[in-house]
Amino acid sequence: MLRLINVHGFFWLLLAVPAIGMTIGFLRDPVTAFDLIHPSGEFSVRFMIMAMMISPLRALFGRQRWLDWLLARRRALGVAACLCGLLHLAFYLYDMGDWGMIAEEALIFSIWTGYAALAIFVAMGVTSNNASQRAMRANWKRLQRLVYPAALLIALHWVYVDGETMGMIVHFAPLLLLETARVMLMFKRRSARSGTGAVTG
Amino acid sequence: MKFAQAMLAVAAATAMQFSASPDAFATGKMKCDAGPQSGWKSRTDLEAKLKKDGWTIKKSKVDGGCYEVYGVTPEGQNVEAYFHPVTMEKLLVSQRGKVIFKK
What we know:
The complex is a heterodimer of chains A (201) and B (103).
Chain A: H1 2-5, H2 8-28, H3 33-61, H4 65-71, H5 74-96, H6 99-106, H7 109-126, H8 130-136, H9 138-144, H10 147-162, H11 166-200
Chain B: H1 2-20, H2 43-52, E1 56-63, E2 66-72, E3 78-83, E4 90-95, E5 98-102
Antiparallel strand pairs in B: 1-2, 2-3, 3-4, 4-5
């Protein structure tokens, strides 16, 4: 099993399991679309957070084999987040079933934040390949950094749709703590460097 | 490294704390002090009344001691609504988090 998980194709398949399960559930009984909106969105967030945690973990722990392993699979996690986000939208659109109502709701804060985040995900998703990375050069990295505003938009979308914060906090807290630790460590190293500079300089 | 490990431990402990507490997942949008469930009107009755009024019901459940209904209003809005389980009074209606009625 451990050897199998190292095969990239298998890892992609593993990430697709929730989406496959939800799609089968929907095809068997389309009424479930309403109940599948939330879990599909949650899986999208989980994959995004897993992908986003790799950078701060590397900053905190340095180069580790398990982090290199995760880093090599970050693209798969990001694409899975994007595809689950699209599935989330598909279930929502099916459940609504009326373009007039969909357009009316699109102006509500909790809904347009979701659309905006998904637009970023799609832009990142379609450029998640080596050819785009080469063609876009420095802009590719700039585009990838849009995941931070996307994460903020998703947090707002979640809280405002649900009307409660706990679900969002449970998911985002580990990432927030890791990012805080990364920033603190960065300042600590910077002040240590400037301290050394003052002594030697 | 010690600093990083401590932060990771805090992150893991926080996540475990929240996931271990079922109360953490109560929505808290509306609370009804409606007494024991034996005195409540049935959810089926509420759904039947709403359908008669022109609602389309997607799902209903108990939340915060109230009846929570997901559905489409006669005006065509997809909403989440709370009703008192004894009086069946409408307490809160929100459309994707935007409150459109509150008693």
